[in-house]
Amino acid sequence: MQVRNTKGWTAGRMLALVAALALSSSTAFADAKSKVVILATGGTIAGAGATAANSATYQAAKVPVDKLIAGVPELADVADVRGEQVFQIASESFTNEQLMTLGKRISALVKQDDVDGIVVTHGTDTLEETAFFLNLVVHSAKPIVVVGAMRPGTALSADGMLNLYDAVAVAAAKDSRGKGVLVTMNDEIQSGRDVTKAINIRTEAFKSPWGALGMVVEGKGYWFRAPVKRHTTNSEFDIDKIEKLAPVEIAYGYGNMSDMAYRAFGKDVKAIIHAGTGNGSVAKHIVPVLQELRGKGVQVIRSARVTGGGFVLRNAEQPDDKYDWVVSHDLNPQKARILAAVALTRTQDSKELQRIFWEY
Ligand code: DAS
């Protein structure tokens, strides 16, 4: 026997209505797209050449963020996007102050409930440095994806539009959360810590010595690895508590080198990154100036001009313990500079510095 209430509704029909309402609200939530903010800083992805044949001759940092977004209407299929023009520069000109400005803007945005992910469009020359910096200092599990292009949008087979689409898709995806700062270039998802620009004029320029984390295909991320080094929410460094990065310079090692660069830098830096030959080797006639600088409190960090899948071994050919030097582990010189510039805002102790280079 069917029991009807005063309005003639059976229990079965009421249950069906509740289920339908629940489903519609859940599909409504499922359909609510992630909110992604695109922070534009310039670079080739915003570049323009004179003709479509100019894939390598062009001017970087010309196209504003609203035009970048308008140029890829498909972005609206994967996320609810809005843009901000933070800078409009070629990234070889990035300064520590600009890194701090970008980091603080991102830190403020990721605290907002109406922001689910961040994309930073950036020149490729120092993209790896910015990505590593953000990986160290922004305390959020929300995806932060840095993206560039090797060809300007005006060129035949320009790569920027697909790179941007991939970046927004990854920044919008829940499974990108908690993996540290990411870089999407040439269909790959790279760790912001590991990735480096390994080739200067090809679309497959970005490589990670330990391999990509995954791929993006038609707006979907496919993951095969996850980072193991400390980053973002697990970092002891916080952009909101940093006023100014420490001054750190890099000196390049080679045969017949002189110690002039070290002497010149030595006056104004907290650390020198030695981009040594081989396993971060130091020519014997360079040791005295390094010892002199170390004696004045300048940290000496041995990195290597050789990168791509190894790491500088402590106390191998160089007596690091005896000289109180630090090794950069697998970080290339430019990444070692970023980590040192951040770490030296918290410690001047070489043993603490070495721990930090092991852990990040
Ligand atoms: N000059 C390069 C830069 O802005 C252009 C590029 O490759 O993005 O990093």
Instruction: Report the end-to-end length measured between terminal Cα atoms.
Output: 69 Å
Shape: globular
Backbone CA Rg: 24 Å
Instruction: Tell me which CATH architecture of the largest domain applies here.
Output: 3-Layer(aba) Sandwich
Strand content: 15-25%
Helical proportion? 25-40%
Question: What ions, cofactors and ligands are bound?
Answer: D-aspartic acid
Per DSSP E runs of 2 or more residues, the count of β-strands stands at 14
Low confidence ranges: 22-30
Order of helices and strands: HEHHEHEHEHEEEEEEEHEHEHEHH
Q: What spatial order of strands do you see in the largest sheet? A: 2-1-3-4-5-6-9-10
Total of helices: 11
Largest sheet: 8 strands, mixed
Mean pLDDT: 93
The CATH superfamily label of the largest domain reads: L-asparaginase, N-terminal domain
CATH secondary-structure class of the largest domain: Alpha Beta
What number of domains? 2
User: Which structural class fits the helix and strand makeup?
Assistant: alpha/beta
Named CATH topology of the largest domain: Rossmann fold
How do the helices and strands line up, and which of them pair or pack?
Layout: H1 11-31, E1 35-42, H2 65-70, H3 75-78, E2 80-89, H4 96-110, E3 117-121, H5 127-137, E4 144-147, H6 160-172, E5 182-185, E6 188-191, E7 196-197, E8 206-207, E9 214-217, E10 220-223, E11 248-252, H7 260-266, E12 271-276, H8 287-295, E13 299-304, H9 320-323, E14 326-327, H10 333-343, H11 350-359
Parallel strand pairs: 1-2, 1-3, 3-4, 4-5, 11-12, 12-13, 13-14
Antiparallel strand pairs: 5-6, 6-9, 7-8, 9-10
Helix pairs in contact: 5-10
D-aspartic acid is lined by residues 43-44, 60, 90-92, 123-125, 148.
